[in-house]
Amino acid sequence: MDRHWFKGDDGEGANLTGKINNLMSTDLGNMIDGRDFLFILIFAPVQIIFSILFLYRILGWSAVIGMGFMVLSFPIPGKLAYLVNNVQVARMKKTDSRVQAVTESMNVIRMIKLFGWERKVIGQVEEKREEELKYYKKRMNERLQLLIVRGSYILPLIVMLVTYASHTLIFKQQLDAATVFSSIGVFDVLRNQLHMLFWHIPMTIQAKVSLDRINDFIQNLLDSFNDKEGPVILDPNPPASDAIGFRNATFTWTRQVPGTPTPSRRNFRLHIDEEVLFRRGKINMVVGPTGCGKTSLLMALEMHFVPSSPDSWFSLPRGGGVAYAAQEAWVQNETIRVGISRSEWS
């Protein structure tokens, strides 16, 4: 078979093992911690609305000014929540990469010892660990959460001062004991609700990030159980029905369903130009320099076909099953002689 060059765009299909481990531990824990998100949607807004109404009955239009100041200051915790979300997503990706490196090393530990790659593997794991620790050393996520929590105490105090100042300086009203103590009680309720609201926001954001990660994983997992695709041939002069190969084809990990509101995040695409035919009952060799796409060609067995031109076709019969053995599978649990020569007497 002629040598061909293949090209593909990097996707998010890497670090699968590490991602599964994190989904089962960290992400599920985050979702449990964020289970009280209904507090943000229902309970807290109702309490805040009634507090504002009571303040209006007690202080009049000065309470409206104070609440207006509170509304204008809401973008600050909103921006902090947005930063917390971005930091959490980036940190989880680094954790996935580190867990994946450790898991892969343990899976092929025999091959690592066989070829003396201990220092190289240790260096790779330490490098990924250092990248992960950068987010923990900076403690950016914790600092942002601390600002959100502190804001839940400071914001009601500022709102109370602005309300009292507008009541006395703008509307020229006096603050008697009944007005002050009754309004302080309402402000205390408002402060508690804002504190609980800002306390739940970071946990809800982390739960949302974890939920998106689990949903993306399950969606891609379900995609692998779609109906098996038969040969797709657009060429008016197709090859024999039992042929194995493709021409002018593009392969993706996820089939794009019509009407889907958002495209899949796994946007890896493998483009194959011209025609590639495999011979049945023969050993087919794919030859090329490092990085040209030899492994990606075999990965097309598990991808979805996307026609690139009117003469595109592909035929990968899977009725009898498809087996894919990675390079590490050739290292056997035997002696070095048997592992290399496949025979103890060769």
From TrEMBL:
It comes from Thanatephorus cucumeris (strain AG1-IA) (Rice sheath blight fungus). The keyword Membrane applies. Residues 14-206 form the ABC transmembrane type-1 domain. This is ATP-binding cassette transporter. GO terms for cellular component: membrane. GO terms for molecular function: ABC-type transporter activity; ATP binding; ATP hydrolysis activity; DNA binding. Pfam families: AAA_23 (PF13476), ABC_membrane (PF00664). InterPro entries: ABC1_TM_dom, ABC1_TM_sf, ABC_transporter_C-like, P-loop_NTPase, Rad50/SbcC_AAA. GO terms for biological process: double-strand break repair. The lineage of its organism: Eukaryota, Fungi, Dikarya, Basidiomycota, Agaricomycotina.
